[in-house]
Design brief:
two-stranded antiparallel sheet, 408 residues, alpha+beta, Heat Shock Protein 90, 6-stranded mixed beta sheet
């Protein structure tokens, strides 16, 4: 459990920061060893060690700008050159390598090769120069170039090992950062997709509510209008012809039952229940309901079957009910001509009445919905009216084939 807790804590920090912390710890240990081996000049070694450690730590964790980091790199390099020239002790190559790790973690492979090579050459020169200066001292031994060269070659292994490990870590750090960035982008895109999905769901709900509202307006509204017409007619004939008044009341009752069924059908649609729609039967039912028990006359001509999808079929049906409803309520119409036919690969809808008409026809909710519905289905709706000449509705929709035809 303790190992898992340690890993969990380490995951909170970046890989580069963990590596830099490890380098600081190693440098601290090496500098303590170097100071302990400095002999009588330990105070010089301690001053150089403290300065070098502070510069390295600040540059590793606090300096971010590349220009400032370059200045710190130069200071570290000078301190180590001075250190290596004054003291002849092991671990200097390791010290150089640790300083280079921070540079390796912040630059490209090409820059690391150039800087690492330059640092190794400078270190090698400082080693050879130090050995040569020591040989010039009165008590010093003769300068052994072969021994100095062998030391330089051996130290190359340490430089190369640190270079390889540091650049592998650099690649891991960059790939990890890239993966984290990609993950954040994926999360952001997923969030946007979820928001878009929620928006589409709300839009679908709104569209469904609008469709049901239109359906109720077109179907139930027409039935209620017919019921009003029949009951009004029954009131006028109640004293003169009770039998005729009774027929109109019976007809109005049937209309009320039909309107209730339409409402129930809308509720079932909202509940997800599917019922196939029969266009010809619905048109015939609408015409019969409108004319039965009223003084309304409708001359109709339409196919028994027509190959259109259910949305177009219901649109034709609701357009007839809306047109009849408008003609009766607003135009005082008593006669209608309804034609539905196929011509030139199109469904052509015509409904005209003998109502009062209008000098300037204004589109209300019903006519506007009719026009927008026709356009949505790839067709068009046109409304014409003249005062005293009635109103005419023409709708054109794309069609497939026609089967049979019925005249009323």
């Amino acid at each position: 459990m303790k190992g898992k807790d340690l890993i969990a804590k380490l995951q909170k920090y970046a890989v580069a920061d963990i590596v830099k912390a490890g380098c600081c710890a190693c440098m601290f240990v090496l500098l303590v060893i170097l100071c302990a081996q400095s002999g009588s000049r330990w105070y010089i070694s301690l001053a150089l060690a403290l300065t070098l450690f502070i510069v390295f730590a600040v540059n590793s964790f606090f300096v971010k700008k590349i220009v400032v980091k370059t200045v710190f790199y130069a200071a570290e390099y000078v301190l180590m050159l001075v250190y290596s020239l004054i003291f002849s002790m092991p671990f200097f190559s390791t010290l150089y390598s640790l300083v280079l790790v921070d540079f390796y973690l912040n630059n490209s492979l090409k820059s690391n090769c150039i800087f690492g090579g330059f640092s190794y050459i400078a270190y090698s020169v400082s080693i050879v120069a130090r050995d040569y200066l020591i040989s010039l001292a009165p008590e010093g031994a003769a300068f052994d170039f072969a021994a100095s060269f062998a030391t330089v070659v051996n130290e190359f292994i340490i430089f190369l090992l640190v270079f390889t490990i540091a650049n592998m870590l650099n690649m891991i750090v960059k790939k990890t950062a890239e993966a984290e960035k990609n993950l954040q982008e994926v999360v952001a895109r997923e969030k946007k997709l979820q928001e878009a999905n929620e928006y589409l769901k709300e839009a679908a709900k709104l569209e469904e509510r609008n469709r049901i509202a239109k359906q109720i307006h077109d179907t139930t509204g027409h039935s209620i209008t017919t019921i009003i017409m029949q009951t009004e007619a029954a009131k006028l004939e109640f004293d003169k012809d009770p039998a005729a008044a009774k027929r109109k009341i019976v007809s109005a009752n049937l209309q009320a039952v039909s309107a209730l069924e339409e409402l129930r059908k809308s509720v079932r649609v909202l509940g997800g229940e599917y019922t196939p729609f029969n266009l010809a039967a619905s048109l015939e039912k609408t015409i019969n309901e409108t004319t039965e028990g009223t003084d309304i006359n409708i001359r109709a001509k339409y196919p028994d079957e027509i190959d259109v999808d259910e949305e177009a079929a219901f649109f034709i049906y609701s357009s007839l009910k809306e047109g009849l409803n408008n003609g009766i309520r607003h135009g005082n119409s008593t006669a209608f001509l309804f034609e539905l036919k196929i011509a030139d690969g199109k469904v052509k809808f015509l409904l005209s009445d003998n109502g009062t008409g209008a000098k300037e026809l204004k589109e209300g909710y019903g006519l506007r919905t009719m026009r927008e519905g026709a356009e949505r289905l790839g067709g068009k709706a046109e409304f014409t009216s003249e005062e005293g000449e009635g109103t005419e509705i023409r709708i054109t929709l794309p069609a497939h084939i026609q089967k049979g035809e019925k005249d009323d």
